[in-house]
Amino acid sequence: MTFCSSDIPIDSLQELKRVVELAKLDVPLPISFPLDDVHTLNLSNCGLSTLPIGFEKAFPQLSILFLSNNQFQQVPEVIGKCPHLQMVAFKSNQLTTIHPEALQSQLRWLILTDNQISTIPETIGRCTRLQKCMLSGNQIQTLPDAMAHCTNLELIRLASNQLKEPPMVLLRLPKLAWMALSDNPFLHSVLEAHADLKGLRTLEDLEESNDAAILGQGASGITRQYEYQGQKVAVKTYNTDIRVTSDGLPEEERRIHCAAAALDCSALIRVLGQTVRGSLVMELLQDFRAIGDPPSFDSCSRDVYSNDSLVHALTTEQAMTIVSALLQTLAALHEQGICHGDFYGHNILVCATDLNQVRLSDFGAAFFYEKGSSCGTFLERIELRAFAIFVKEVNTRLKEGESPLLRALVARCRKEEPSSENNFDRVYIWWKQTQLTDIAKEFGLGIDETVVEEKEAN
Ligand SMILES: Nc1ncnc2c1ncn2[C@@H]1O[C@H](COP(=O)(O)OP(=O)(O)OP(=O)(O)O)[C@@H](O)[C@H]1O
């Protein structure tokens, strides 16, 4: 093979130039490799099934690579040769395998949603910086033990796979906080136990129409505004035909939304019933805004809070009210064996005209699990981590400065000893008692804290 001065095989130059064209890169002509200024390449929807030889040398500073909606059958080896590559997306290809050498330590964000992958190579254990891993909609039956080395993993999506057993290797990871597991064989029996939604009232007189004003559209469906019996309502029509989203199945989301609405929690969106076609009729949220923005490339698995985010307007008291309502809600959900899976500031809506009003939205990643199982104990601790991250994010942005009580709550959520006993119910009881003790102190009343601890222990 003949090489040009940059060690790139001359035979590959035409193919590499085509890559530049497909990615619509604005580079000086004539194109001369290596292209040191290229950090991002978007090659989605380009009909590709391979990358040219010398790709890693042509783009030596590449850090983000999109290859979604192409025809790759294998995640190629060259992915592992790009020394700065942190994010790779191969959503909706025809992948059946991952080249073991494609997995290297620089990866932070791996997207392989909607493919046919059945096995993850042991080399995933090299990915010690991996923070976010999207594997929903594949054929994965088990995960390699080497995943125990992915100790920085914070978010994983594994919905609609073939897991016959709970993925214990993941459940033990120290930083995992967001997880989607719906539609896997090991959870099917639990889902069947929750299949009956007959309790939901059918609102026969609410006629759906495509002309109604659209409030918004997500991966799982479309939400429109209607007038029902003199009241404004929101109606969500689920895309029940969709088999794969990056989070989970729309049908399971619908079921969980209903099961959750039956709980008496002020932070859950009220469900009034369903239409004849099965769309959910909900309270209309007016003037509600998400408290955080979804993660950016840099923040990867963490939300972003812009300067005009509502969080900066909260008083300590309002933050306490919001956090208490959310904690009570999570305790109630886990009591029913429901894991939200996406407990993030960008899914927590606060009313801009009454900052005490909060709603937990987006059950897209949620799933039912077996309450009382060891898997369930781990799942609850994982979601406790997400809750602690959120409380800390709020507390460090309050206009009156950090609240010591909220700081203590974060520490209580993170208490690892004895780990199996840390759950939302216990944290909620502790939180109520701690708040009471604090109020009593303010009024100069003494509360015997040993009584509090004893109650908690029981
Ligand atoms: N009860 C409601 N009242 C008012 N607007 C709503 C209501 N429910 C949903 N919406 C609007 O519809 C949008 C889409 O909501 P939906 O729950 O379908 O998707 P999402 O959770 O935002 O996104 P995704 O499904 O991609 O995760 C919301 O962002 C919001 O603007």
Automatic annotation (TrEMBL):
Chain segments annotated as coiled-coil in the UniProt record: none
Stored SMART domains: LRR_TYP (SM00369), S_TKc (SM00220)
Keywords: ATP-binding, Leucine-rich repeat, Nucleotide-binding, Repeat
Cellular component terms per the entry's GO annotation: cytoplasm
GO molecular-function terms, A-Z: ATP binding; protein kinase activity
Protein kinase domain mapped to chain residues: 209-458
Keyword field contains Repeat: yes
Protein name per UniProt: Protein kinase domain-containing protein
Organism field: Fistulifera solaris
